[in-house]
Amino acid sequence: MSDVVSLPEQPAFVLVRPQMGENIGAAARAMWNFALDRMVLVAPRDGWPNPSAVAMASGAGRLLDEARLAADLPEALGDADFVFATTARERDLTKPVFDPQAAMVEAAARIAAGQRVSVLFGPERAGLENEDIARANAIISVPVNPVFASLNLAQCVLLVGYEWQRVRAEITAERMAMAGTDWASGAEVEHLAQHYEDRMQEAGFFFPAHKAASMKLNLRNMWSRMPMTRADVQMLHGMMRQMVRWKDRE
After folding, report:
1. Which residues contact 31 (CB under 8 A, 6 or more apart)?
2. Computed from CA positions of residues 162, 11, 78, 54, in that sequence, does the dihedral angle turn out positive or negative?
């Protein structure tokens, strides 16, 4: 029986000539935030392993233990079918340029088709050299402030990792945290509206008489526009009851 080689289900993040161990550790943390664990290190300046990287990884040390060390970029990319190079600066090279989101959509499609994808991240001082980018198939251009294009290594890793997570996971763009309650039903809102209308009628709020119907209509419309929870309704009932008690004490 022949061995079956399982293909990776995520891109490899290749840190090219990283300079500081702290930044490697921070990049590992950023990767693991989004369940990415295929790290490749190309000729780290301060050698490898690096105690500063381990200290900074804080919970993502496994990525450093399993990181693949390569002497140069050709070795790091030996098994890659498609390579992205990240840069915040214009390069005088003819290549397709993706923003981070589109790049990760492309990466996911290629990986689903059985390809191995790598993403290159340059050293902290000046990013990737043109010689590095020339080995890539496409560029990921990070939209940064043109007068301050410097992007921290771990920040760039985090940004691309986040876009990968958005492609791979079903993420809700907006949700409501209900804090142990639920939305109020129509009957509950109706009961609240009637409670306020009755008490405000007793207080003489609907004045003058010829405007009363319009004022009540506007009040009912206000209640229907407000997305209220059951906790909101209970609190508003309580507020009105307390104001009535306070009036009676006076």
Report:
1. 13, 37, 39, 60, 63, 157, 161
2. positive
How far is Cα 92 from Cα 183, in angstroms, rounded to an integer? Answer: 56
Q: Which residues contact 150 (CB under 8 A, 6 or more apart)?
A: 88
57's CB contacts (< 8 A; 6+ apart) are 25, 26, 28, 29, 63, 64
Token reading at 76: 């790091």
Q: Which two tokens stand for residue 141?
A: 């251009």
pLDDT tens for 56-94 read 998 899 999 999 999 999 999 999 999 999 987 777 788
The answer to whether the CB of 29 falls within 8 A of the CB of 158 is no
**Burial grade of 12 (CB within 10 A; 0-12, 13-18, 19 or more):** buried
Contact (Cβ atoms closer than 8 angstroms) between residue 17 and residue 45 = yes
Q: Which helix (H) or strand (E) holds 86?
A: strand 82-87
Query: CA 73: distance to chain centroid?
Result: 30
Q: In this structure, are residues 77 and 119 in contact, taking their beta carbons and an 8 Å threshold?
A: no
- Tokens representing 89 are 């600066």
Ramachandran bin of 75, using left for φ above 0, alpha for ψ from -120 to 50, beta for the remaining angles: alpha
Q: Are 205 and 243 in contact (CB under 8 A)?
A: no
Band of pLDDT at residue 146, cut at 50, 70 and 90 = confident
Q: In the structure encoding, which two tokens stand for residue 152, read together?
A: 């921290």
Question: The whole model's pTM is what?
Answer: 0.73
Alpha carbon distance 245, 224 (integer Å): 27
